Amino acid sequence: MNDLVIMRDQQAVTSSLRVAETFGKQHKNVVQSIENKISSAENSAQYSAMFVKGTYKDRSGKSNPMYYMNRDGFTFIVMGFTGRKADNFKLQYIQAFNLMEKHVSQFQLPTTLPEALRLAADQAEQITIMQPKAEYTDKMLANPGLEATSVIAKNYGYSTREFNKLLHGLGIQYKQGKTWLLYAAYQDKGYTHVEPFPYKDSHGLEQVRNTMKWTQNGQKFLYDFLRAKGIVPVVERTA
User: Which of 170, 37, 20 is nearest to 89 (CA)?
Assistant: First the structure.
């Protein structure tokens, strides 16, 4: 999923080839959708500003048409792509556009004193905003051990029960007996470790049940996944 968005003519864009590859579409169909919009009588001028025609060479060396598209063009083309998988890809593209455009804005040098002062103020504000995130992620990544769900839940301001239900609702985990386990899509990725947990039942008898804990990679996965959904740790929330 690298290079979803690239820089071209000082603008963040993606390509019809990348869209087709990511969403599992035939490239000729993506191109046809773009050309249908450009050739339509209504709003054709606006569509033309969203798409720029280019070419690429296939394996045989033949040149074929393709299109570059900005954020607006991308939105028009993929808004009809449905399904959970498509939604996840859309979110990744949106994040890629945001990051690329932010990167561009950071390197646009001010030409006047007011612009320079505004840039300095914006950078100071950004440092203040990003500091809690840096502290949280640094702390998380510095801990190579396993972390209980209850600890992670507390970092997000949830009870353990609420957090487990949240992850279940997001399709990350399911409950088998008294143990939460990851769905197949997230198994075998080294996100969690299941270990025995001794406890006493209501009769005072020693019992053992399995409990799932999160590895460092698992905690990073949760952080990125939840952040994409607009859910961040308490320390990152603004008042």
Answer: 20
pLDDT computed for residue 122 by the predictor: 65
Considering 85, 105, 125, which residue would you say is the last residue of a domain?
A: 105
Q: What total of structural domains would you count in the chain?
A: 2
| Axis-axis angle for helices 113-142, 216-228 (nearest 10) | 140
**Phi, then psi, of 53 in degrees rounded to 5:** -80, 145
Residue 76 and residue 83: Cα distance in Å, rounded?
A: 16
Taking each continuous run of H as one helix and of E as one strand, the counts in the chain are 9, 9
Long-range contacts of 120-127 (CB under 8 A, 24+ apart): none
CA atoms within 13 A on the CB side of 164: 17
Q: Does residue 158 sit in the same domain as residue 100?
A: no
> Do the domain assignments include residue 216?
yes
Distance CA 239, CA 22 (A): 37
On whether residue 134 sits in a domain, the answer given is no
Mean pLDDT, contiguous 10-residue spans, the chain (239 residues): 72 89 91 87 76 89 91 88 82 82 58 64 54 55 72 89 91 88 88 73 70 86 87 74
Q: Verify that 36 and 91 share a domain, yes or no.
A: yes
**Cβ 19 vs Cβ 74: under 8 Å:** yes
Q: Which domain holds residue 29?
A: 6-105
**CA dist., res. 75 & res. 66, Å (int):** 17
Q: Contact 119/110 with Cβ under 8 angstroms?
A: yes
Whole-prediction pTM value? 0.42
